[in-house]
Amino acid sequence: MIIVMRPKTPPEEITKMKQKILDLGCEVHESLGVNYHILGLIGNTSSIDPDTLHANDYVEKVIHVQEPFKKVNRLFHPEDTVISVGDRKIGGDTFAVIAGPCSVESETQIVGIAEAVKKSGAAFLRGGAFKPRSSPYSFQGLREDGLELLKIARTKTGLPIVSELMSTEYLERFVEDVDIIQIGARNMQNFELLKEVGKIQKPVILKRGLSSTIEELLLAAEYILAHGNENVIFCERGIRTFENYTRNTLDLTAVPVIKKLSHLPVIVDPSHAAGLWWLVEPMAKAAMVVGADGVMIEVHNDPANAKCDGQQSIKPEKFQALMDSLRQLAVIQNKII
Amino acid sequence: MIIVMRPKTPPEEITKMKQKILDLGCEVHESLGVNYHILGLIGNTSSIDPDTLHANDYVEKVIHVQEPFKKVNRLFHPEDTVISVGDRKIGGDTFAVIAGPCSVESETQIVGIAEAVKKSGAAFLRGGAFKPRSSPYSFQGLREDGLELLKIARTKTGLPIVSELMSTEYLERFVEDVDIIQIGARNMQNFELLKEVGKIQKPVILKRGLSSTIEELLLAAEYILAHGNENVIFCERGIRTFENYTRNTLDLTAVPVIKKLSHLPVIVDPSHAAGLWWLVEPMAKAAMVVGADGVMIEVHNDPANAKCDGQQSIKPEKFQALMDSLRQLAVIQNKII
Amino acid sequence: MIIVMRPKTPPEEITKMKQKILDLGCEVHESLGVNYHILGLIGNTSSIDPDTLHANDYVEKVIHVQEPFKKVNRLFHPEDTVISVGDRKIGGDTFAVIAGPCSVESETQIVGIAEAVKKSGAAFLRGGAFKPRSSPYSFQGLREDGLELLKIARTKTGLPIVSELMSTEYLERFVEDVDIIQIGARNMQNFELLKEVGKIQKPVILKRGLSSTIEELLLAAEYILAHGNENVIFCERGIRTFENYTRNTLDLTAVPVIKKLSHLPVIVDPSHAAGLWWLVEPMAKAAMVVGADGVMIEVHNDPANAKCDGQQSIKPEKFQALMDSLRQLAVIQNKII
Amino acid sequence: MIIVMRPKTPPEEITKMKQKILDLGCEVHESLGVNYHILGLIGNTSSIDPDTLHANDYVEKVIHVQEPFKKVNRLFHPEDTVISVGDRKIGGDTFAVIAGPCSVESETQIVGIAEAVKKSGAAFLRGGAFKPRSSPYSFQGLREDGLELLKIARTKTGLPIVSELMSTEYLERFVEDVDIIQIGARNMQNFELLKEVGKIQKPVILKRGLSSTIEELLLAAEYILAHGNENVIFCERGIRTFENYTRNTLDLTAVPVIKKLSHLPVIVDPSHAAGLWWLVEPMAKAAMVVGADGVMIEVHNDPANAKCDGQQSIKPEKFQALMDSLRQLAVIQNKII
């Protein structure tokens, strides 16, 4: 960490700040520029809050050098983490395809879609039971009944199931029922929820918040790892920008960036990012070639009558075509799909 | 709601869509443009999900006409809502000043600050007991002990207390202990939490999410009102933009906009928005003149040693000067402070 | 175009507005909702400024139905435009690779790089002669001398040259000297410049502005086409967002979106978007699979001593590897590279 | 400037980098952290391009310490700059009100509005002759004829005139005809234009680009000052964000920030920022209390028939009321209006 003192800071204030750094358990390294006086902190700075130092009136800026995350940091864990879910894997050589409807609507619907996506080669079934919706008047999901239907679909197809957890209240139920717990974009910084999923061993898909930087996403995962659960999969799903033709702006560059900064797997959700079904295929292909470890695709047998997100869901035939494209690319990318 | 069909949509698809609208309980109003065929939905469209209609391949776009929020909508509730907290009010002619430290650190600290801000004219004491922090290694608040210390400060000063609730787990405790429950920016779309605070009658300050549109903020409040609690106060606290000199970009224009769209009170938090103590005073004054119903100000007796957000906290003397400025403006704005 | 009148608009104001629409040469289509009164404009609305209608106090909102651009619109020109530059093409089955240094520095440098990228398979040479730089103290390019050096490189390699025009003052010179004129992101809405390049027949690469919506980009191209030049190639080069790990956020979804809305070719500049050399290869590959018609890549023989943008330039060997990757993908994408 | 070398950089690469710094004319200050090796550059770093250093593969990041702007920097010019236009001033104790229509439409219109705003107390007349419009089919201004009409309005009222220059082609004409040259948001980084207005002595209002950081705005002004013209007035006019209720998001916090960083005056344009006439008054008042040196207000006698921006223009009576409000606030703010 580096502290830049304001021009013309009185020497006694420099001395005080140096003492404060020593009190924080770090060594001080001093450097005098033409206008600025710079103090470097040498030592373990990860638990020092830069805002506290910045509160000093004579401090111009405080600059991070060391990344603020540790357990998710590739620097201290160079090899890729591969997460196992039964006999399937996420990370490493595998390209994991998770597919299914935005929300579970009925047994026929979820079982039908599960069978279709399995046939096309999906490795996991997704389906929302508890749905975060902007409006209280929109369909909120079948909740516990939805979980029951997902379990039926799993029994019939053997596909492990992924579903979103929105509250610690249902954590135990999810640990019991689902194979991968999803934390949605809106809850990426629901720290109480992160701490609790940190105490279990179930794999967690952590979706990037709409306005979260990559660093904040890594820090959110750090909450989970710091509490004991190392099975975290990142999911890029679009960020909020001024462009409004698409629902969000898919930040595909985040994939190679996260893979450089962290050892954890990264998947991409092109359906939510784009918000339009005809954009799902090109963006899923792009996810593959930028190095993602998988994709999460919304598939619905009857999008025009889906209870949510129909406009971004693709039909099973379209999903089959998408899988064919992905398989072609997988050969080039040396990925097993 | 208006549906624009794609150019060259086959007539039978138009017929199908018209039937679908009738099935949704609305009348259809048809209009033929040069290239586009337009269908208007007449009736109660508030429970119709536009995404469902958009899922039809022949639909070019779906346009809202009616605002999607109802109970918070000024259209159906023209007069201002004034919220009572004991003998104090938020909304109407009152300009409510809420002041206190980012986090409660000790009895001496919170009581000292409470006495200081009371003396300068603050009407409410704020203090964080449970703290949402980006890093798991930052100070997380004194939690339940913090609530106890806030209660001591209330007893000593008579100031009602405001504190942030981060999880439904502590809801009962907060209903018991605090006077106004704050829902933080990161939890603005934690819908499970919103539903629960909707079931109580305690006033709620709902902070705008970092990347939330004004419409989403109103819909988040709609969750609370729809579940039965009409005591909601909006708080503008900055949105995330590309500008990084300041912590966030304070969207002051949102104040008159929200007051036009909704009958609920709106306050402003300049401390979190700007993230720099020397910006707090001008932005608090601006909040007053754009018509806000109050401000929330971080005050700390020793910012350079504060456990969080020291760089954006002002000292009690500075707070006194700020109150003096606000009082001058209150005369012009016809507000009681 | 659709006009939504405010709730409770007096009938005489509706009548006035209807007359105004007739005066604008359109027919009116009227529709009465529960709270809102809606007026549809039937006819040629492309020259009607929605802001003018919005200025009426009784107007709640004005909604576009028809896209505001015409000549660039695929609706009126369904087949892809293919642009010829000598014997080379941009658009259609071709994937055009444009490569070269950020700025021309010397004859040895530009000729050396030109030979290297030609050997690897680039179809065009790029090189900045006039450089737009945030700071007046940064290197501003060799200007006219840079153009001379580019011409030498063209003579030696046969590669057509692409260079950025920043002012109408040099237009004649550029028409004479370069094969494709580039309009940079910062000048995307320099309308005087757009009008002038609209009067020539030289192909123009139009880069998306940092904060321009896709619609604004298409409208900027509309300026060029409306003045007579139909040889426009769009270039997605990243938009400005809150994420600051990368220089900008590459909006790859914009590629299939633009190709749906317009018949003109679209290329991608991953170098400027990412701003980091190790991100260029994955993002260039992604550009190919989302359907771009080409890429523009910064290549420098000695990035660490480049006069600008060294951190985002790749070395010739790395460029060779990138071309190999692109060729593999081209087979799958049915593109000629 | 501080260079952070990647963990495990070979010692010989550190040595090379140190030599490079010496070659750039700076001293090196070395500091060894736990994982990172840090090199500080001591000396005049303003002409060193950080990107060049970043291009070295072993460099993790390059951090500015010194602000990259010099002539606009308050550090080297502590007292406020006051700009004179005839007998009027912008900056210091004065609060300058510039008012007038978006575009000049006719002699009656511009003279009528000029007389009205003068009567209410405006100090300058604004009026667009050359208009930057997103669509080529929108009204582009009366151009040279517009300048003639502005001059008639000046003769009749004595108000100095402000108008936007879009191209160097008309620079001489503007120097002759107008009192303050406006550079619009879209041309903030039209560096060729900035250099040219840097060669004259006429005051320049430089509007912040829609996606420009404060630092970029200051650097754009630095172009003008570096070429010899020190009469620059900044204008905050809203930045582009995800919020789309308003045209842009007015960043009022930028006002005290710019005034801290620079000695030049800062005005605010609430009309373009908000894009809705009923937001102009509250935001203009807020501009005053955050310390702006003036405002620029769109006033039109008949907004519903204005040729541009009618929805954000206020009528003369409304402008009178706004001036009354500003005068009340001026007393508190110690400003002369």
Automatic annotation (TrEMBL), chains A, B, C, D:
Residues 87-329 form the DAHP synthetase I/KDSA domain. Residues 1-67 form the DAHP synthase ferredoxin-like domain. Pfam families: DAHP_snth_FXD, DAHP_synth_1. The keyword Transferase applies. InterPro entries: Aldolase_TIM, Class-I_DAHP_synthase, DAHP1/KDSA, DAHP_snth_FXD, DAHP_syn_2. Keywords: Transferase. The keyword Cell membrane does not apply. Signal peptide: none annotated. PANTHER family: PHOSPHO-2-DEHYDRO-3-DEOXYHEPTONATE ALDOLASE (PTHR43018), PROTEIN AROA(G) (PTHR43018:SF1). This is 3-deoxy-7-phosphoheptulonate synthase. It comes from Dehalobacter restrictus (strain DSM 9455 / PER-K23).
